Amino acid sequence: MNPLDTSLLILRVVAGITFLAHGVNHARNIEGTGRWFAKVGFRSAPMQARMSVLVEVGAGVLLVVGLLTQLAAAGLVATMVVAGLAVHRFNGFFVFRPGEGFEYVNVLGWVGFVLAWLGAGKYSVDNQIGLGWPGTVGLLFGVGGLVAGIGQLLIFWRKPSPT
Questions:
Q1: Do 75 and 61 form a contact (C-beta atoms < 8 A)?
Q2: What is the sign, positive or negative, of the torsion defined by CA atoms of 55, 60, 63, 68?
Q3: For residues 111 and 13, is the Cβ–Cβ distance under 8 A?
Q4: Is the residue at 126 inside a domain?
């Protein structure tokens, strides 16, 4: 077993399951998730909540199996940029309670960036079907996730006024 390919498998599966579980948790109370999105400053909050669930569940599954890995990783990067900048950065670095600090989204965002850059590795559907773009093109997917997250914030988010 190649240590790099085995490491990419572990990284993909752990990040994918985490992202998938987060999306399923949002989906279980989609109306409440939409209300929370509105509370933290998102316009079109019900639509934003549904899109968030779609990206989290879809990209989570894709990461676990290693299919369209760079695209799924870009979705992870974008989502963590949005969560980090819209919510968690105002609470410092550490997460002591849900909704605090940006340490969690920081780590997941960088995992997504690395997966976009390096690709899925040997133990993936991408490898089996000859798909994937490790290297420069993968790096561009990571940067694309960053740009997409910032774009979403610029279009849909405004910092809520303190009440």
A1: no
A2: negative
A3: no
A4: yes
How many domains would you assign to the chain?
1
- Domain assignment of residue 45, yes or no: yes
Share of the chain above pLDDT 70, in %: 99
The residues that bridge with 16 in the sheet, in sequence order, are: none
Q: How confident is the model at residue 60 (pLDDT cuts 50, 70, 90)?
A: very high
132 in a domain, yes or no?
A: yes
Question: Is the pLDDT reported for residue 47 higher than 80?
Answer: yes
CA distances from 31 to 35, 50, 75, 89 (A): 6, 9, 22, 25
**Structural domain boundaries, residue 86:** 3-156
pLDDT, tens digit, 9 for 90 and up, residues 68-117? 999 999 999 999 999 999 999 988 899 887 778 899 999 999 999 999 99
Q: Is the full-model pTM beyond 0.85? A: yes
The DSSP element (H or E) to which 61 belongs, if any, is helix 45-65
Strand, coil or helix: what is 29?
coil
Q: What is the pLDDT of residue 20?
A: 98
In a domain, 148, yes or no: yes
pLDDT at 163: 67
